[in-house]
Amino acid sequence: MQTGEYKDILYGQFAVIGKAVSSQKRLEILDLLCQAERSVEELAKETGSSISSVSQHLQVLRSAKLVESRKEGLYVFYHIADETVGEFWRSLRSLAVNRLAELRETIRKTLDDKDKLEQVGHQELLERARRNDVVVLDVRPETEFKAGHIAEALSVPLSELESRLSELPQNREIVAYCRGPFCVMSLKAVELLRQHGLQARRLKDGFPEWRAEGLPVAQTEGTA
Q: How many Cβ atoms are within 10 Å of 88's Cβ, its own excluded?
């Protein structure tokens, strides 16, 4: 094989990945699949898209070997191919934040300006959870919690939080977390908790980052 032909093949294959992640909707789908396996129907609902549109996006992601699927009855479920896909997604986000000033400004206006208290780091949360002097609150949907969560975390989806406040202890700080550093669910949860007189902060990022560092995680029994 000639050098020119080799380079054409090499960079052409790299471009397959680039093309697969060139759509903001496909990136949103990839982010959701980094949390938990989902059906096409669930992805359509989460992203506000039609089933046919989501199916097309999934075919592009699958062609690039970023996601895989399995069939269960009449439904097809998708998941990321392996954890290297999650690493790729986190690296892409980090690069975008480092290089794009407009993105940083959007994050600042949406998240940082509203989060008045210092966020909790991984090591602090780990040490305090072991001492049992903090409540770790997972506010993601229950399906994501079942697929994997921070060990000892309590599952209270954001949509149920206000109606379940009585389940939370009043004498310990609550640390809420969700899908990642740009997810607004934990921010909304902290705002709600503070409005009801509870001491609350949010984790500096989310479950995928916690898991990627090899910190203690758990999975609901029977979850694939």
A: 16
Q: What is the pTM of this model?
A: 0.89
- Closest to 150 in 3D by CA, of 89, 219, 86, 87: 219
Q: Is 3 helix (H, G, I), strand (E, B) or coil?
A: helix
* Residue 111, number of CB atoms within 10 A of its CB: 17
Phi, psi of 177, deg, nearest 5: -140, 160
Task: List the structure tokens of 118.
Answer: 């210092």
Name the phi and psi angles at 22, rounded to 5.
-85, 0
169-172's contacts with Cβ under 8 Å and 24+ in sequence apart are 169/135, 170/198, 172/133, 172/134, 172/135, 172/199
What is the full DSSP assignment across 121-182? PHHHHHHHHHHT-EEEEE-S-HHHHHH-EETT-EE--GGGTGGGGGGS-SSSEEEEEESSTT
- Residues 106-149: tens digit of each pLDDT: 988 888 666 666 789 999 999 999 999 999 999 999 999 999 99
* pLDDT of res. 221: 55
Is residue 34 part of the annotated active site? The answer reads: no
Domain ranges (residues) in the chain? 3-86, 108-218
Question: Would you say 66 and 27 are in contact if contact means Cβ atoms under 8 Å apart?
Answer: no
Q: From the candidates 54, 137, 158, 178, which is the catalytic residue?
A: 178
Radius of gyration of the chain (CA): 19
What is the CATH class of 3-86? mainly alpha
Q: What is the CATH number of domain 108-218?
A: 3.40.250.10
How far is Cα 119 from Cα 137, in angstroms, rounded to an integer? 14
